[in-house]
Amino acid sequence: xxxxxxxxxxxxxxxxxxxxxxxxxxxxxxxxxxxxxxxxxxxxxxxxxxxxxxxxxxxxxxxxxxxxxxxxxxxxxxxxxxxxxxxxxxxxxxxxxxxxxxxxxxxxxxxxxxxxxxxxxxxxxxxxxxxxxxxxxxxxxxxxxxxxxxxxxxxxxxxxxxxxxxxxxxxxxxxxxxxxxxxxxxxxxxxxxxxxxxxxxxxxxxxxxxxxxxxxxxxxxxxxxxxxxxxxxxxxxxxxxxxxxxxxxxxxxxxxxxxxxxxxxxxxxxxxxxxxxxxxxxxxxxxxxxxxxxxxxxxxxxxxxxxxxxxxxxxxxxxxxxxxxxxxxxxxxxxxxxxxxxxxxxx
Amino acid sequence: xxxxxxxxxxxxxxxxxxxxxxxxxxxxxxxxxxxxxxxxxxxxxxxxxxxxxxxxxxxxxxxxxxxxxxxxxxxxxxxxxxxxxxxxxxxxxxxxxxxxxxxxxxxxxxxxxxxxxxxxxxxxxxxxxxxxxxxxxxxxxxxxxxxxxxxxxxxxxxxxxxxxxxxxxxxxxxxxxxxxxxxxxxxxxxxxxxxxxxxxxxxxxxxxxxxxxxxxxxxxxxxxxxxxxxxxxxxxxxxxxxxxxxxxxxxxxxxxxxxxxxxxxxxxxxxxxxxxxxxxxxxxxxxxxxxxxxxxxxxxxxxxxxxxxxxxxxxxxxxxxxxxxxxxxxxxxxxxxxxxxxxxxxx
Lengths: 347, 347
What we know:
Chains A, B: Its cofactor is Zn(2+). Chain A is an alpha/beta fold and 347 residues long. The first copy, chain A, is built from eleven helices and 19 strands.
């Protein structure tokens, strides 16, 4: 089968590799219908040292079950399924708390344990916990496939930011970052009842979608100027909630600067830093709450499917260009060049 | 009148100074009935450089109104009042949000703007916002005075930690620190329905009070050993909530190490650091929430007074020794030597 392998920064190849097989009775083999490239895939695309042994890529998947292990009971051959970007048993105390990304028996894709999902076929561990069937839909229902695929990561990552911030109706929410996750956070904030949504971003083709999804204000300025603009828009008080969908230190600092006293900063951009300000001068003095982390999309996916199917939300609009699996290297390059917001890959 | 002045580390004196006078029509002059020494007063007691110009001290006060400015309407001469440790207008949007410690028109005591409250008389700015009358009680009701004084800071600081952590019935709560705030946090966690309360502290005279107030387990071990003990007590998962009442970096690190995935760390110990771990390896990877800050006790005080008066809570038990105002230097020395948990000062 074909699979996507990265051999170093800027070097993505689609190659023939051995088909995956059932290794454990809890595994399933899924044939990919749609996959995509994540903003986080661009981190190694920038920094990976070249090497002979490539890195398998991808963690977003909408597919059809091909085969199941003997202990799999909740999915069967032929089911259209969404694979959340982390696999988990979905039964342990941590999963029952709703934090499946930290399941002690689960893990992430694209490592020595499990291959990446930008491939024709994938082995999904703990399939009962890790796959969610989309009832009544087939791969021929093309119109809903993009939005269903976003439930594997991007939309529900934006949703997680909003959920962890406990957005309440009437609040002002600022979203830092106009990438696909930031725009998803706008859509989720609107769903949770935010009254005012300030989107910080300077790519008008992207912020335009943010406005369609509920952003009431767009702040294109960056740094001090951008901070001042948000404060001006909020009578000097700042934003009840800040959803940080970037992961870089300037975005962190901007977030606490535009947060209202007593407000919440919710991060879903994977931090590219370990230490940051949390003392009296940053978080503590103004009783700011810092929350967020890897989105346990498994916890939200079943509630989101009906909203996609009935058209309440259309998160698939983050996909602005479609590629075949053979074109995946181009998809990476285009996302890296920011000519594509998020690449949709048909397999 | 007599007032407490610090001239350098270890050098506290009670001296005669000019009586305070009404400076603004919104001021009140309050005669002190009881005051006390705070753990945070010990920071300058350790570090203050000696100098000729002393530093006025104190921010906890139970007193009787002596005089009010022309615009003061909610308190009058003769009222027994509690002064929260920060003054505020209690009417602005930030105060209405319940974060009076960050009132843009308010401030803290013991600085150039307002003197400290370890004195016979104090000028209270914005008296309508900054003082709370204790109805039906006089300074002769000695039995309730200690607990009422704790509503000025220590008990409601512990309460703030528990409140910001949104403790829910049935949760496991770990309290880091067995000082007066940590013990108050135990009492507050119990009030909010915590099922299991693990108190990390090694002074048995203090942890004994914690056990009386609801601690179900005491962990005397520190560092790695203490962390492992908490994990062992929680089947390896850690604590839903950690209340951090110390403010030093080892306590911060201990807090995220003993927190359960998806859990909350709520800090009320004033951080003696600005930067700390918040990235994938500390907070983000396990979806930990960091919250807390200076306690807006003004927001909680009216609800707490009836609980003190009807005996539901007895937070005044943190005071284990009484001093006169003239003995304040001894009170500092005893608290610093940890022979006194919290010094109660009669004036």
